[in-house]
Hints:
408 residues; globular
Amino acid sequence: MEGVNADAPIDTTMVAPQLPQDESIEWVLKTEQFAEVPSAPKLPPVGGWKKAIFLRLLAVIIIGSGLFISREGATIVIFLFIIVVPFERLFPRQKHQGFKRPHLDLDIGYAMAAPFLNIVALTVGIFIGVVSLAWIPGLLIAPYVAMIPSPYKLIAGILLFDMTTYWAHRFYHEVPVLWKFHSIHHSTEHMDWVSGFRAHPFDGTLIVPAVVFLIAAGFETEQVGFLAVFQIVFGLFLHANVRFRFKIFDRFIMTPEFHHWHHSNEEDAIWSNYSTFLPLWDMLFGTYFMPKGKRRPKIYGVDELVPMTMAEQLKYPFEGVENPLLFLRHPLRSVWGVIRHPLRTIGRGFRFIGRMIKGYLSIMKLMLRSATRPWGEKFPNAARHIDRPEGYSRKNKVTADMIEPAEI
């Protein structure tokens, strides 16, 4: 054979690897089996590519509208990235959580779209502020507010605003209809510098009655507006993934630890820590939760299957609700129907108003049950109290034996 020296010594080190002595045939079969496993296929998104493209295009339109109106959202994102992210990298609370965590683009998108979504929220908020009738008790206490000396008027305004936002926040968790909106904010499973932006535009509208109440009571509009803006900005920092505890302030002011427990999906932490500035209200109304020792929140998110695209999240609270704007699909046909059957149209209008009033009274009833449920009662027993149609008393606690088993 050309090029091969037959007299050269054989290199005994270059020999085939020996198979294991025991079960050598099985070892070969397993190796061949794993070698033939194909890579995971790239599946299309849920609902198909057409739906995914449409939802992404709709999100781009919403975000583009926000950036067209104002660059404030982008500016705040850059500011938080420069100020907060370095602390998250140096002192992380959840060390396993990387910077590019799941759905980061969704939360940044909410920040960019904030100017547009805030206009929508303000429009609806004004309507809710009027129909909530919160201005009536405000006008009733206005003479007494006018008697408060100026140095103490600001303190009284802060306490009243903080207490009313506590109750608004509590109702958003404990009234199922309102929770559908607030669940968007709690759907994030990763707390960090930008997760606080994820929120439905109608989520904060329940705070508007508190603002209307304070303004009608005679508090300065500038002061009330400052408190509302401060609460929003302060809340962004409380979501950060930093391990600072500030334990000395636990009972005096809201801390990241306090708010992280509020976002926790661990059962004994659910329905707790509703305060937005002063933990005083949670301690007074039995919803304060700060475990002793070194225990820290580990699990975030919600139990519901909340969609993870902006367009679907904006639609999520309205699932199952009849669209009142369906007439716009066939406007000429709808107008002709009104002309042809005016009495039928008037009847539909009255039925719609009746459903609105019935829904409003139902929400008020659940709010009352939430406000009067036993002090300090934990989830899920507290939830069963609120959902019971026959009501409850402090003497009769709901137990598992009182719940009828579901039919199979």
